[in-house]
Write the C-alpha cells for this entry.
Amino acid sequence: MKPEALAPMMVALQNRGCPNVNLVTPTHQVPQILAALPEAIERGLIVRHLVLPGGLAGTAAVARFLAEEISAATYLNLMDQYHPCHEAFAHPLLRRRITVAEFAYAVDAVRAAGLTRVEGVTA
C-alpha cells in the first residue's frame, strides 16, 4: 500500500470513532507506515502512548522519534492509566501501576524531545 493511501485511511478510521489503528505484524510495511505518518499527523492523527512501569514503553525514545523523524507538532496523548491484569502479574515489571515519579519522567522526556502538542500533561 502506498503512503498516500494509508494516511487518509488512518485518519478516516479515527474520524469514525476507532480508538486505535493497530498494525499487526507490519514489518514488511514499515517504510510505507513511516512515510504515511507525517501526512496523517498533518490531517489530525493522534498518537496515543501508554506509559508503562519501569520505562518499558520506551517513552523517551518514542518522543524523540516522533519529534525528530515525524514532526515536533505531532499530537501526542500521553496516557498514565496502565492497569495490570491477567498475565501481567507474572512479570515483575508489569505487575504494578506506574508511579507519579515515572509519569513525571515521561512528561519530562516528552518535553525534552520538543513535542509541542501533548495531551494528558498539565502545567
Remarks:
- Residues 1-18+27-44 form one domain.
